[in-house]
Design brief:
74% of the residues lie in helices and 0% in strands. By secondary structure, the protein is mainly alpha-helical. 12% of the residues are buried.
């Protein structure tokens, strides 16, 4: 069983790294421009992995940090590549809010 502190910690960390630390320009352009997407996902990965490494609520002893970082970056980039394109199309249709 995963302790509730770990779950809450990851949710807060994800919110901080993915939303609060995302530049508005990246958010608008990441559906169309690779540099904006990669700036966002690089920033997210750096913050997420660094805080996970030092956070006492996420004891990941024995973790291969290189693999964890690469997996985090690749999965977040792939996810945002598709979701930002979908969100952009919905926004253009007026389906938001």
């Amino acid at each position: 069983m995963i302790p509730i502190g770990v779950i809450v910690s990851f949710i807060i960390l994800h919110w901080f790294a993915d939303y609060l630390m995302q530049d508005g320009d990246w958010a608008v352009k990441k559906s169309k421009e690779w540099p904006a997407l990669l700036k966002h996902t690089t920033t997210y990965t750096a913050i997420f992995c660094l805080v996970t490494l030092i956070n006492p609520f996420t004891p990941m002893i024995g973790t291969d940090w290189g693999a964890f970082t690469v997996i985090t970056f690749v999965l977040h980039t792939a996810t945002d590549y598709f979701t930002s394109k979908h969100s952009s199309k919905q926004y253009q249709k007026g389906n938001f809010g």
